[in-house]
Amino acid sequence: MRFVVLVKQVPDTTEVEVDEETGTIIREGVPSTLNAFDEFALNAAVDIKEKTEEEVEIIALSMGPPQAEETLNKCLAIGADRAILLTDRAFAGADTWATAVTLSRALKKIGNIDLIFAGQEASDGNTAQVGPEVAAHHGLPQVTYVSEIEEVDPKEEYIVCKKERDEGHVRIKSDMPAILACMPDPGFEPKIPNVREIMKAKKKPKEQWGIEELDGQEDDYGLEGSESVVVETYSPPPKEEGIKIEEEPEKSVDELLKFLDEEGIL
Q: Is 131 helix (H, G, I), strand (E, B) or coil?
């Protein structure tokens, strides 16, 4: 079987700057990390590989600047077999649609894929759109909000997942190939690679694909190929420092009531 895991490098900070002209996040010089939802998706793929008797190849696929290779190195250490970075100036400024186009054409180039894993959303966008858009490009069944993969049957070509819902969860059976948008449950603990795994990852194959490796149609990618425009992006104002009352219970109540009265709350 061949699994492809879509991963993204995201800013590892709450302090971000925005390009006023394009409305996109300025990523240069900002510490980055592997998106937590994608890390869960990768762990899910590795878990299946470790439990099945079938031969499984896991490919980590990411779109981003050259420094996103650091994130792919982590993916290889966690358990991916090879990594592909889609990086080109033509890909810059892409919205979710243009991102999905780029990833989809790379997936087509890879070929013979049984399952595509993705995080439910990215911490720097929270749109939850890329996974479903990739599914639409390929005409594949999709399961979103996947918290657990219970069964994979490559011979009968189906998969059984647990999908989270507001009122609980449901079990869903889907044909393969399919795309799974994964969301970790509160108890999820990501795999921490040991030194041996980190060293082994350095010997695993890595590739970089640009626009020429896809199809060279610049108008389909990046800002030019985007169907949406960010009108305004800004950081929320910092929260005001709270008030802490450290008194005996009765006096604390009096102080609290006094404060609420002064603020016009009571």
A: helix
**For 236-257, how does the pLDDT look when each residue is reduced to its tens digit (9 = 90+)?**
677 777 777 777 777 788 888 8
Radius of gyration over every alpha carbon of the chain, rounded to an integer in angstroms: 22
Is there a domain that residue 251 lies in? no
Contacts for 130 with CB less than 8 Å, ≥ 6 apart: 6, 96, 99, 100, 103, 118, 122
Number of domains in the chain: 1
Which CATH number is 88's domain given?
3.40.50.620
With respect to residue 79, please indicate whether it lies within any of the assigned structural domains.
yes
Question: Rounded distance, CA 161 to CA 138, Å?
Answer: 20
| Closest listed residue to residue 184, CA positions, set 53, 56, 42, 58 | 42
pTM beyond cutoff 0.85: no
CA separation (Å) from 193 to 74, 79, 80, 188, 229? 8, 9, 12, 16, 39
